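Late entry, written up from scratch paper. The run itself happened at the end of the previous shift, but nothing got recorded in the book at the time, so transcribing now.
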Amino acid sequence: MRFQESGPGSDGSPHSYTWVRHSLEEHGRSRLLITTGSLAAAITVAGIGYLLDIEDLLGIGLMLAVIAAIALSYSLSVIASARPVVTATARRGALSLRYRSVFTLPTCLTFMVFSPPAIVIGYQNMLPQAILGGVVGVVIALVIPPIAFFQRKRAFLHLSYDSIRLTTIFDDFELAWEHMLRIRATDHRPGIDTIMIEYEGNALIVRKKTRGFTSNHRGHEWEFLAKVWGSSLNSLLSTLTFLHENPDIRRTLNSTQLTAMLEQPAWAIQPTT
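Output as recorded:
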């Protein structure tokens, strides 16, 4: 089957807007079926081990069930965060996309599930490395929720007539549209969708930077995560490219139009013949 590669955006988008499939993406719903099936299979294995009194089979089943549950939580997070939230009040003169984390729940579950056993095993077998690792894991699990809370309150991707500005509790970058040379998707980080903006001179304003978090830059390239803004890579890239090429649209853009542009149109998720 063939998939249409470009076409009109969702209802409510500017008339001249074109949504473009820049890359093939995985969707949370297909992953949800796989992870749900895996969890059911793992529970079945554990159940058989329990009924037949086979401890090894029971242990394997329970371990697989834990892993499948964490994967399922990630799939549910992806689906729950897959809708952009646009506000006009976060920054004067800008429409802002609110940060939508898909990693908080599965990360917390991972550390909370595996850290306590590591501490117990380390204590029973006199393994200080295991104890230390478990303690660190528990601390991380406790620290992540408040960080995620403040990130949700303060992290935005601001789109104004003059510039793009990305602000989080870790980063603060701003780049004027007129200094952008090219906007594209990257492919050098497998499994992580990012957008790269090439710019001229020293146009990128860096007010705050924490390496390894939402945004990064090197040379004349600015790179930031795509899906944490509630939109797919294709939708966000199509929107930024369109706004870059159409300054008149930027001047009159409203939140309803921007939300529609950031949503994947119906034809894009349905195969055409």
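The radius of gyration is 22 Å.
(Scratch paper discarded after transcription.)
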